[in-house]
Amino acid sequence: MKIYTRTGDKGETSLYGGERVSKDSLRVEAYGTVDELNSHLGMSIAESHDASLILLLTTIQNHLFELGGELAVPPGHRHAPPNAMTPERVIFLEQQIDAAQKELSPITKFILPGGTADAGRLHVARTVCRRAERACVRLARTEGVDGLILTYLNRLSDLLFVLARLANHRAGIRESTWPSIESTNE
């Protein structure tokens, strides 16, 4: 199978079922940003030495691949695959958040992204997840999006934030907060 088809050379792409749309359509922007998020998780997996984090992120990558596929289906398509998002997947993310938070101290200030390389990559993934969520919200206003997709992305960004904190905690790295001591003395 050839990797190039030449069918996208004029700024259009195909959705599930063959419908052609502009590459800057809201739908393509939404699933493209989910794909970008998935790539950032792949980088986190490739660079991490934490087996439990790798397993968790690999599970989430599979969810995101299916979520992106669901976003590639135009509304009302007769032969759409079953919805990828389920309430159980949202509950799974919530359980992961709850488990991670048991190891962490309560938040009393805003936390600045950074710390370990693992934490930094997870913070980048979190911000891309928020962008994917915003893209899906825009799409939902015009074409409709399964509400569970919005909930999943919202919960996933929360989980990525908690996982970044956990990576720093496990490495013994103190989190940078805002306002920092330096900025309050100015």
Individual helix count? 6
Q: Give unreliable regions as ranges.
A: none
User: Would you list the SSEs in sequence order as H and E?
Assistant: EEHHHEHHEH
Euclidean distance between termini CA atoms: 62 Å
Output mean pLDDT: 88
What structural class do the secondary elements suggest?
Answer: mainly alpha
Q: What is the general shape? A: elongated
Instruction: Bin the helical content.
Output: 55-70%
How many whole angstroms does the radius of gyration measure?
A: 19 Å
CATH architecture: Up-down Bundle
Give the strand order, joined by hyphens, for the main sheet: 1-2
What is the CATH fold-level name? Hypothetical Protein Ta1238, Chain: A
Could you walk me through the main structural features you see in this protein, from its secondary elements to its overall organization?
This protein has 186 residues and is mainly alpha-helical. It has six helices and four strands; from the N terminus they run E-E-H-H-H-E-H-H-E-H. Strands 1-2 form a two-stranded antiparallel ribbon. A two-stranded antiparallel ribbon has the order 3-4. Strand 1 (12-14) and strand 2 (20-22) form a beta hairpin. The mean pLDDT is 88.
Can you give me a brief rundown of this structure?
With 186 residues, the protein is mostly helical. It has 6 helices and 4 strands, in the order E-E-H-H-H-E-H-H-E-H.
Q: In terms of topology, how is this protein built?
A:
Blueprint: E1 12-14, E2 20-22, H1 26-47, H2 51-71, H3 87-101, E3 110-111, H4 117-142, H5 147-170, E4 177-178, H6 181-184
Antiparallel strand pairs: 1-2, 3-4
Helix pairs in contact: 1-2, 1-4, 3-5, 4-5
